[in-house]
Amino acid sequence: MEFLNLIFLFIAAILGSSLNAVAGGGGFISYPSLILCNIPSINANGIGTVALWPGNIASAKAYQKDINLSISSLIMLIISISGGGLLGAYLFINTSSRVFDGFVPFFLLSTWLLFVFSNKLRSYFSNKLESFSFEDANIIHLISIFFIGIYGGYFGAGLGMILLTAFSIIGLKNLNEMNGIKVILVSFNNGIAAFTFILSGIVIWQYAIVMLVGALIGGFYGAKIARKIEQQKLKNFIIWVGAIITIVFFYKEYFKNFI
After folding, report:
1. Of residues 87, 66, 59, 95, the one with CA closest to residue 202
2. Residues 6+ positions from 106 with CB-CB distance below 8 Å
3. Cα angle, residue 228 at apex, residues 226 and 230 outer, rounded to 5°
4. Residues 152, 193: contact at Cβ < 8 Å?
5. Are the CB atoms for 166 and 144 separated by under 8 Å?
6. Is there a contact between 66 and 177 (Cβ–Cβ < 8 Å)?
7. Which of 141, 167, 197, 200 has CA atoms 20 to 30 A from the CA of 229?
């Protein structure tokens, strides 16, 4: 059974990383897969963060030429998202599994709704707002990034979509630059959280290493295959999978004893 669990998690990491590289939504695959293997939710969240983090670093290289921010502006954003990530990770490791399990269905629902409507939200704000650059960022922008970072450090699924939507709301227009900034900020946020989880001892390494290898394969090879699939069909697949998984988690946490 243990060997089958490792194979299952390896495949899940390939699929989740492939989806993240193309359309997002990999969190609907990685975290539930760990839960399905009877791994406690606290450990599952830590394992998923550690396993998927290196893939974010690899992605950052691809966008480096699209980022037109000064080093000082980028550093301020990194400090904000990293500070939030550290606080989020600290809150997480000091949260009981019972409390965390109660939050998870709402996190999944929020991520699902954002995935469904993110393109419409970005399009709406892109048409309504004047162009903005983080060179003109003020304390309110940095505080907003800090609070988004808290969520990223605590749970993390959908963090990239949250950042892209937030960028659109404040007026960023260039999608490639938005993706580049997003990847860098997610990398630092997840990196801070990953090291916090490692030091706390919640990471079960046989699962983390298997998923790490799968995520690297999925991020490189799986993404090439996924790009050949019509984007709307891929997005519809993620929407249906996300909806089913969200319903299952709500049922297990809140309705199992009533039905």
Report:
1. 95
2. none
3. 90
4. yes
5. yes
6. yes
7. 167
Q: Which residue is listed with tokens 């260039």?
A: 174
CA nearest 153: which of 113, 183, 191?
A: 191
Residues for the chain: how many in total? Answer: 259
Per-residue pLDDT of the chain (259 residues; tens, 9 = 90+): 688 999 999 999 888 887 776 666 778 888 999 999 999 999 999 999 898 887 666 666 666 676 777 788 888 999 999 999 999 999 999 999 999 999 999 999 998 898 888 778 777 776 766 666 666 777 888 899 999 999 999 998 888 888 888 888 877 777 777 778 888 898 899 999 999 999 999 999 999 999 999 888 887 776 566 667 777 787 888 889 889 999 999 998 888 766 5
* Nearest Cα residue to 183 out of 3, 74, 60: 60
- CA–CA separation, 80 and 141 (whole Å): 9
- CB hemisphere CA count around 3 (13 angstroms): 0
Q: Which two tokens stand for residue 219?
A: 């991020």
Distance spanning both ends of the chain, measured CA to CA? 30
Q: CA angle at residue 34 from 186 to 166, to 5 degrees?
A: 25
- Asked if 125 and 169 count as a contact pair (C-beta separation under 8 A), the reply is yes
| Single pTM value for the model | 0.87
**166-177 burial, b if ≥16 CB within 10 A, otherwise e?**
bbbbbebbeeeb
